[in-house]
Design a protein that fits this description.
481 residues; mainly alpha; Glutathione S-transferase Yfyf (Class Pi), Chain A, domain 2; Growth Hormone, Chain: A; 2 domains
Length: 481
């Protein structure tokens, strides 16, 4: 797979190279920090201060160039506006055509500027992600919080929202986009010079430049898009610069049935989590426990899931199939134990069954599969499917429990409203396991993925130490040595 730095360089606009964020330099600097810390020539506090200062300088360079280009475009559009106004009194077909081409040329330059913003935003997010991964810090959170909220921050000019979402704050370019679109609309032959984009004209504006601008702006401001909203909540981000080679690799690794199996795993797990909620209190009391134990029974699965996230994240660096098989087996055992606790009259077996269910949570694998193996062109839809499957499972769990209102025995096994949720889910996981073994296709892996364990470890470090790190960074002086 082509390295991000190389892809970024290929996408850079000729003549503007020195104004882009120097991703290669910062990546090299991060590597040097690691080496210097290992030999003891630098401490981590100095690294944070030095890297923050480097980022500030890189962003300032980019933002000042952006503002300069915005000003040039604004001045250019102001001159075109004067020519446009002159045409209102003395319309001339040749002058209208010439003016339209001038607006289109300005639109092409605006497209370059939008591309400039996008590539720099992705580069900044990537280098922050790399820094967090190598050092195990929540440096990104600290950096954005301190810079974006400061009244003199360069960061909030362009990148305020980029670091958390695949979006861009392009409000500063909004006036330029609007001016080009509106004036080209007025110059459209079939609509004369009296209608405006604000008048809801019958005929839409038909101009490839405006279509390209709209597509670029939509790509940069897609936070209002429902699929992106769901994708962000699934923590599955698209922050690469795709190339035809990447798309080919994605297509080779992508297998629809395997994706469907991951979504089915997500759905079944959420059903498993919530199916016991309506009956957990009665079940606990029938085994001689206090009603308050119900909360422990429900929460035991969530607590165990914290630990399962660690080993499933690490395991997914080597395989997707084996963790899913293990998850299904553990969940089958956990649900069977939950159901059998009634006949054994043991609250301990009940709790142990729920802990087993939590230890079988493969949601980290499900998210990782979508992030790594689904092509970019449908990744956001797959991410939306992940969140939708979770939400549907949460709704179906209690509803299914409401339907399991019966009471009978087969041999010495009791089937009633308390035990049926366990039996039903045990059967569901057994069927899923068979489907998994028949249909799942293990994707091929490239060398880059072998470095992912660092990311998983860093993620767990921030989970357990987030509050301490937030305090530490909030009190870290960054001005001076």
């Amino acid at each position: 797979m082509v390295a991000f730095g190389k892809k970024m360089k290929e996408r850079q606009i000729q003549g503007w190279q020195r104004y882009y964020i120097n991703y290669k330099l910062m990546k090299k600097k991060v590597k040097q920090y690691v080496q210097q810390i290992e030999v003891g020539t630098l401490d981590r506090r100095h690294v944070l201060k030095d890297f923050s200062r480097m980022l500030d300088n890189q962003i300032e360079k980019t933002v000042l160039f952006l503002l300069e280009q915005q000003g040039l475009l604004a001045s250019r559009l102001a001159r075109l506006r004067e020519k446009h106004d002159a045409l209102q009194d003395q319309p001339d077909i040749s002058n209208v055509t010439e003016l339209r081409e001038a607006y289109r040329a300005a639109g092409q330059d605006l497209l370059k500027l939008l591309s400039f913003v996008e590539i720099n935003a992705i580069g900044l997010r990537k280098i922050l992600k790399k820094f967090d991964k190598r050092f195990g810090y929540r440096f990104t959170d600290y950096y954005v919080k301190t810079r974006a909220n400061h009244p003199y921050s360069q960061l909030q000019q362009v990148f305020k929202h980029v670091l958390y979402h695949p979006t861009l704050d392009v409000q500063g370019l909004g006036a330029v986009v609007g001016a080009i679109s509106r004036n080209l609309h007025e110059l459209q032959d079939r609509q004369g010079s009296y209608l405006s984009i604000y008048d809801q004209p019958v005929l839409p504006l038909q101009d490839p430049v405006v279509d390209s601008i709209k597509a670029a702006v939509d790509r940069l401001t897609n936070s209002t898009n429902f699929l992106n909203f769901l994708g962000q909540h699934a923590l599955i981000m698209q922050d690469e610069l795709p190339t035809p080679t990447d798309e080919l690799v994605d297509d080779q690794r992508y297998h629809f049935m395997s994706l469907l199996l991951n979504l089915a795993n997500t759905f079944l797990y959420m059903v498993n989590t919530y199916i016991i909620v309506p009956t957990a209190d009665d079940y606990s009391m029938s085994l001689g426990a206090a009603a308050t134990v119900c909360g422990i029974v429900i929460g035991a699965m969530a607590v165990a899931q914290v630990f399962s996230s660690v080993y499933f994240s690490a395991w997914s660096n080597k395989s997707y199939f084996r963790p899913l098989v293990f998850s299904s087996v553990v969940l089958f055992i956990g649900n069977a134990m939950y159901a059998l606790a009634y006949d054994f009259k043991s609250i301990a077996i009940l709790l142990l069954g729920r802990i087993f269910c939590g230890l079988g949570s493969a949601r980290a694998v499900n998210r990782r599969y979508i992030s790594d193996c689904v092509p970019l062109k449908i990744r956001m839809q797959a991410s939306a499917g992940f969140v939708s499957a979770s939400a549907l499972g949460m709704a179906c769990g209690p509803a299914l429990a409401g339907l399991l209102q019966t009471n009978f025995k087969i041999y010495k096994l009791t089937f009633n409203a308390d035990t049926l949720p366990g039996w039903v889910m045990a059967v569901a996981w057994l069927i899923y396991l068979i489907w998994l073994c028949i249909s799942f296709k293990e994707p091929s892996r490239d060398t880059e993925e072998n470095h992912r364990p660092h990311e998983s470890n860093a993620g767990m470090l921030t989970l357990f130490n987030g509050h301490f790190l937030a305090w530490y960074f909030a009190n870290l002086p960054l001005s001076g040595q």
